[in-house]
Amino acid sequence: MTQAKPKPKLTFEEFLEYDDGTDKRYELDNGVLIEVAPESDLNIRLALWLAELLRSVVSWKLIRTHASTIEVKPLPGLSRQNRYPDLMILTSELLVRLETEKSSAIKLDMPNPTLVAEFVSPYERTSDENYQRDYVGKRKQYEHRGIPEYWIVDATARKVTVLILKDHRYTEQVFTGQDEIDSTAFPELELTADQIFSEYL
Length: 201
Known about the structure:
Layout: H1 12-17, E1 25-29, E2 32-36, H2 41-54, E3 63-64, E4 70-71, E5 82-83, E6 87-89, H3 92-98, E7 115-120, H4 129-145, E8 149-154, E9 159-166, E10 169-176, H5 193-197
């Protein structure tokens, strides 16, 4: 009996060219395609709602929800090579660069977005995969990439964790209820945690 040959590992450029004729989304994990589960309806609604709220301080041209992927460096215990943020705010420089590219992927040699936000899928314990993915895995990879501001929007706990990059490390603040979110990227923003979660009710 012959053994099946292992599939060749893909480079990130090959991954960007990959098309299996479906609408499935994949992350690249050590060169291997891993199918990404469809986003929950709640997370889609919350991301669109936050995008709408942010339009008071940022042009709609710079807002991306769910569609674009960002390349990240594999780290010890974190072999994913890309992520699909729920919400990104681009810089004008990044927007200009993307206009010259074949895909909307943000590669390692491109400028970082101003802000990335992830919406935590429901969980029961902090050891659950949904919690670990956004609070631990993505946090480490976004920090390593140098993304200046990362929001973790947690509908289960009804809190927003804002991580600001200082000296290559994230410092965090947690906002709940009527706390006004303190954003370095958008200091003029007037937004509370409850305003974001009002779409959840």
